[in-house]
Amino acid sequence: MLYELNHLLNMHLFGYISVRAGIAFLLAFLLVLMLMPKYLAWAISKNANQPISKYVAAHAGKSKTPTMGGAVFLLATIISAFIVIDLENPYVWGGLLTLIGFGLVGFKDDIGKIISNDNLEGLTARGKMGLQIIISILVVTLLIWVDFPTDFYIPFLKKPLFDMGYFAMPFWVLIFLATTNAVNLTDGLDGLATVPSIIALFSLGAIVYVTGHAIFSAYLLVPNIKGVGELIVLAFALSGALMGFLWYNCYPAEIFMGDTGSLSIGGFLAYLAILGKSEVLLLLIGFIFVVETVSVILQVGSYKIRKKRIFRMAPLHHHFELKEWAENKIIIRFWMIAFLTNILALISFKFR
Fold it and tell me: Less packed terminus of the chain by CB within 10 Å, N or C?
């Protein structure tokens, strides 16, 4: 809206991506602050509460906490983005498809859990994965259709290792699946997934902005891909919405994001990493998500092979809970690690 108005009235201010990104951040933040109390009142009246796993006794007191807060910050993100973003940019529509598609998968899973009042109900693992694959394929097909480059980059090297060609499609689908489920696994404590997501969005937003900027990309020796810089507006809109959500989600949480939020965040982080040619760097940017996922893989693998557990419980944050660490201590330390690893990820650009 503002982007089109900028051209209609020959204004320059709203032509700057950085200005529109800042506006999107503030709009999404304020929208969540305004909408969340209304949603909370509705959710409490309808008993739309988060079913708590029987294996985590320490969380019994959270059984009356409303869930699906992700629907609110997704709505705020989309509204604020539509107001300021360039809707003629095909990469923007890929981002919206990612957010809405994965959000709907999570919404369907959340509804099933709420209706059955069982954390293990909802979508089956196979059904959930199948829907995630479908959304991933749709987004990846869009990228191939707009001739998005399929070169494969790794940190510290200024030139691509090779061109993946059509092998990029299964690789990108794998990135989507890994990231969405990693964020979903991390979302187990109050605000634990929210702040690392905000930090990662700022990092990946900066990366796509540089990638889409001819001068900055040449200076930092990163690939220049015309049009992807516009995604910083959507990234900042989502980070602003998450900042507003954190107002209610910080310890002790008044609401949880649910799979509606975690799957959409994970999918969008994967999309930004692909656009910024930072698929490998995502391991550092999303380090907390990676560690949580690896802890589950190691735990399951160890138990199947050796009949022994490595951790007291997986994902990793439950291990520290069972070691009687205070919940807010676990959360803040994970936030600190996320901040440090993102700083390292951004520093890596100067080593090309």
Answer: N
Distance separating the N- and C-terminal Cα atoms of the chain: 38
Cis peptide before 315 (omega within 30 of 0): yes
| pLDDT, block means (10 residues), the chain with 352 residues | 55 74 96 96 83 61 83 96 92 97 94 72 84 97 96 88 93 97 92 96 96 90 92 97 96 92 97 96 96 94 89 90 91 96 89 70
> Judging by beta carbons within 10 Å of its beta carbon (0-12, 13-18, 19+), is residue 11 exposed, middle or buried?
exposed
pTM of this prediction? 0.93
Q: How far apart are CA 270 and CA 254, in angstroms?
A: 28
Peptide bond into 252 cis (omega under 30): yes
The Cα angle at residue 192 between residues 66 and 23, in degrees rounded to 5: 85
What's the CA gap between 247 and 249, in Å, rounded? 6
| Environment class of 220 (CB within 10 Å of its CB; exposed 0-12, middle 13-18, buried 19+) | middle
Rounded CA separation 217/224 (Å): 6
Cα–Cα distance measured from residue 149 to residue 42, given in angstroms and rounded to the nearest whole number: 46
Do 231 and 74 meet the contact criterion of CB atoms below 8 Å apart? no
**Dihedral sign computed on CA atoms, order 170, 172, 173, 175:** positive
CA–CA dist 284, 139 (Å, integer): 24
One-letter amino acid for residue 4 of the chain = E
C-alpha distances (whole Å) from 320 to each of 257, 309, 312 are: 22, 14, 8
Alpha-carbon separation of residue 50 from 116, 277, 316 (angstroms)? 11, 36, 21
74 phi/psi in degrees, rounded to 5 = -70, -45
Measured distance CA(190)–CA(246) in Å, rounded: 9
